[in-house]
UniProtKB/TrEMBL annotation:
Keyword Transmembrane listed: no
Protein name as catalogued: Hydroxymethylglutaryl-CoA synthase
Gene Ontology molecular function terms on file: hydroxymethylglutaryl-CoA synthase activity
UniProt keywords, alphabetically: Acyltransferase, Transferase
NCBIfam families: HMG-CoA-S_prok (TIGR01835)
Residue ranges of every copy of the Hydroxymethylglutaryl-coenzyme A synthase N-terminal domain listed in the record: 2-165
Class of enzymatic activity (EC top level): transferase
Amino acid sequence: MKIGIDKLGFYVPHLYVDMNKLAVARNIEPAKFTIGIGQEKMALAPITQDPVTLAANAALGILDETDKEKIDFVIFATETGIDHSKSAAVYVHHLVGLNPHARCIEVKHACYGATAAIQMAKGHVALNPESKVLVLGSDIARYGLNTSGEATQGAGAVAMVISADPKVIALEAQSTYLTDDIMDFWRPNYSDKAFVDGKFSNEQYILFFSKMWEQYKEKTGLDLNDFEALCFHLPYTKMGMKALKTVLDEGTEATQQRLAANYKISAEYNKNVGNIYTGSLYLSLLSLLEQKEDLQAGSRIGLFSYGSGAVGEFFTGILQAGFQDHLYVEEHKGLFTSRTEVSVPEYEEIFQETLPTDGSNIEFNIDKDPAAICLVGMTDNMRNYVNKLR
């Protein structure tokens, strides 16, 4: 039985910051942002959007009534969760109107969480072939104003339906994975901003990829020439290319050219959104599928997932016949073209807007937020959401 991604969508907030202008405001040469790390725009979440609403809007864009009835498991992967107790999946389950007879949980391990969710979903579908699982990867990356990590912030969510006989990509059974207890990136419970040892994290990312790639080749007998493309977790778009370059010489000249060209396509969405942590790898996959028009069914795609702290996995999928007919290219194109640029001072003001932490109530005006699902405020320490379509 084939199991994999049946549907794949994403949502990005309607605001963004131009990285050239952010660089100028920080007295940094713009090329360090646009070329050095490969970022052009940074998605910015207003106060009316949080990880729950981003995920719910992503799911709303791909689910039909049949999906809503058959989904009996929702797995929400995030490292910017909103509650230490209640799963963010429960909010999404309600906001998009899913079958009440469902499990809903939240999982965490830095940027690896959505991959863990997919593997868990595969096991559920293997035992329950008629079921579907909704996997969500949703995050808002915050390092702080005028920090070394500011240029690698972002916001957005990816939603995936995992099922038997998937229409987009069937995930192969063999994968390799690795864990090591390191401190390259972390966010203590008391902080709303992350801490990172950037140089160390980059080194570990490449080391993890190298170790898992060698293990994968030994385990499967496959090599670089067997792949149409490799997609990477992208905290910034040059990161994945650094890892890819370490193995490119293993392929033929044609393979090297193909993988390099396809990598560039796979990074296009990410460079215009920024880092979305758990959803980053799958935004890269989506960028490849929706923008490379001559991708063929039967092609093998490699996927490298890395979560600081650290856990990594390398796994693969085979594109299914007619997969192009089950993408949401125009809808996603509309998300990008309808966004509004904000100035650096406006960005700084929005960035510093936070929810009350003292138990006080607050209400937001959501008229300027075009999203169907928004955060409308807090009452008695509870977040209040609305689906405008109801």
